[in-house]
Amino acid sequence: MSAIYHPLNAYFDTMYANRSTVVWRGYKVMLFKQAWGELAIAEQGAQILHYRPSGHAPALWLSDQSAGPGEAIRGGIPLCWPWFGAHPTGAKQPNHGLARTAIWDLCEEQHLDNFSHWVLEAPHLLEGVTLRLIVRASQQKLDIQLSTQNDRDQAFTMTQALHSYFQLSDTANLCVTGLEEEVFYDKLEQRFRREPESRWNLAMDRIYQHSGNCQLIDQGLARTISISKGNSKSTVIWNPGKESVLRDIAPNQLSSFICIEAANTAQYDAINVPAGRTFSVGTVIKCRNMGL
């Protein structure tokens, strides 16, 4: 069992089967415990709440103060779709789109000796558009693909993000590499910038023009998380900072995570999916303990 606190640890510690379904803070959550490690997926939002490959601490952070069903779950990997951030024209539309508060269907599930595979679908979110999440987990990596199938007779325009919350010892122990030379839009200062960052424990909300890989190095946990992605030219970094007041995050948890997100944003790469075509954005997460 990992020494890192995670709200779902107690459920996994008492599991005697490879699969279980529990209700956590009112959310229905599917738990999977296999030889390669552990994974938890919420029915709401098809949100991955926990990934712990065998031999590692949990890779994803989850707030234990999420508001409850119908409200977005804070932590894990929320799916922001079909818009990222505020709706471009509708002030009354929910932040980050429709997918993360919808109830999804589990369509496929497969467990082999060294990996597991799932396909989930969000029915009837938008007429003529089908949204699927494909997940593959193993001890080596977590691979996520969010697929938008446009069956309309005209193009479908969207922005989106895989809003990954990564578990940290503390933001003071953090270094992120791979973004040093990239231009980014600073949402706090509302301007474009290009400069390397050495202090990742500051409040930040940035969209980097970036299509490559990056690494999260946590000296406190003595581990590196490699984050790669596909079909994304935007990398979002969000850290609320220790002084923030958020109703669904306890003050002592504000320095326990950082968000590093594969995204398609209005700033750099909004997506037009042609009629009859499919577009997928993906991310792959790999954990490595230092010294190994």
Layout of helices and strands:
Blueprint: H1 9-13, E1 19-24, E2 27-34, E3 37-42, E4 48-53, E5 79-80, E6 105-111, E7 115-126, E8 129-138, E9 142-150, E10 156-158, E11 160-162, E12 165-167, E13 174-177, E14 184-186, E15 191-193, E16 204-209, E17 214-218, E18 223-230, E19 234-239, E20 257-264, E21 271-273, E22 278-289
Antiparallel strand pairs: 1-2, 2-3, 3-4, 5-11, 6-7, 7-8, 8-9, 9-22, 10-21, 11-20, 12-20, 13-17, 14-15, 14-16, 16-19, 17-18, 18-22, 19-20
Name its key features.
eight-stranded antiparallel β-sheet, globular, 292 residues, mainly beta, Beta-galactosidase, Chain A, domain 5
Describe this structure as you would to a colleague.
By secondary structure, this protein is an all-beta fold. The chain has a domain at 80-165 and 172-289: Distorted Sandwich (Beta-galactosidase, Chain A, domain 5). The protein has one helix at residues 9-13; strands at 19-24, 27-34, 37-42, 48-53, 79-80, 105-111, 115-126, 129-138, 142-150, 156-158, 160-162, 165-167, 174-177, 184-186, 191-193, 204-209, 214-218, 223-230, 234-239, 257-264, 271-273, 278-289. The strands form four sheets. Strands 5, 11, 12, 14, 15, 16, 19 and 20 form an eight-stranded antiparallel sheet that branches. An eight-stranded antiparallel sheet has the order 6-7-8-9-22-18-17-13, with no helix packed on it. A four-stranded antiparallel sheet has the order 1-2-3-4, with no helix packed on it. Strand 17 and strand 18 form a beta hairpin. The model has no long low-confidence stretch (mean pLDDT 95).
